[in-house]
Amino acid sequence: MSGAVLRVDLARIRANLDTLRARVAPADVMFVVKDDAYGHGVDAVVRTATAAGIDWFGSFSIATGVRVRAAAPTARIFAWATSPAAEVDEAIDARLELGVGDAGYLDLVATRAAGRGIRVHLKIDTGLHRNGVRPEDWPAFVARAAALEAAGDIVVTGIWSHIAEASDADDDRARAEFERAVDLARAAGLTPGVRHLAASAAGHARPEFRNDLVRFGAFGYGVRSADGPALPGIVPAAALVAPVVRLDGDTVVVGLGALDGLPSTLGGRVSVGTPAGARALRRVDLAESAVEAWPDAQVGDEVTFFGPGAHGESDPTTLGEAIDTVGEEVLVRVSPLVPREYSG
Ligand SMILES: *Cc1c(COP(=O)(O)O)cnc(C)c1O
Q1: Which of 19, 23, 32 to mutate to test the pocket of ligand 1 (most atoms within 8 A of CB)?
Q2: Whole-model pTM?
Q3: 20 to 30 Å CA-CA from 340: which of 37, 112, 125, 248?
Q4: For 86-236, where are the E strands, in sequence order?
Q5: Which of 330, 333, 332 minimizes the C-alpha distance to 261?
Q6: Shortest CA distance to 90 belongs to which of 72, 112, 119?
């Protein structure tokens, strides 16, 4: 064992969520817990968020949604991965709400529900083209949904979309498309109570994007946007820590490497936290990394690769920026074999 650990301070997740809820009220917060809660561990995160008053979770997959259900018996859980019939059956049993952005999937979900009125959120493609019904197909799609609702197979509780959050102008165009889609759904006789469009960046910055609900992932874990500022009240919840295993002249060797999920491309590009403050990360090998030494460095000293900054380390987004990716990616790459340790 290398001794590496991902330390998760659950109190910081609570504090981040409190900040976000106050920020977007009266809109609700959906906490996105896909990818094992961005690497933090879905079970502990859902328990913490539930205790903090979060009653909406976004799971992406049905499998994760079922797991969230076990930890949050009364929450509303949104799973938007287009999924096969067997998984849809599990979703119905677990009372998940399904994101539906495809006409064939709408019929599949309705057929599996067979009169049980599963809650669905219809997705309009507002330009990101990941999934979602194109505007030209939307009138027929909502008409079909209204018929399936009248038959008792589905209940259309939401209309939603996902935006790029890369340019305000593109997001504004997407929002206009979204509003048109909501109007058309109403004209078709649907009464979607929950409209949701924004994730962290737009939901935080732009009130007109909040609608009824904001789907927060990154900011809940304290991960800022790439090229975005650190935000008041939003602090990284996780710190990736490993001990010094050997001294080697002017470098120390630390027990964390590429096999643990640390991108080797970070070598030479970022600094890490040490008992003496920030030091250069010189190289990332398979099982170990080399860090610029400090006076009195000792075997067993702790090096922090990312975290809230207490020892001079950078946040996960700064690491991501150094290798042209986002902070979330740095987090979800931490190997599941690295133990998660919880406090708070
Ligand atoms: C991942 C995801 C989110 C959360 O995005 P963040 O930028 O991490 O807040 C919201 N909605 C959808 C559809 C997503 O896939």
Answers
A1: 32
A2: 0.97
A3: 248
A4: 97-100, 118-123, 154-160, 194-196, 213-216
A5: 333
A6: 112
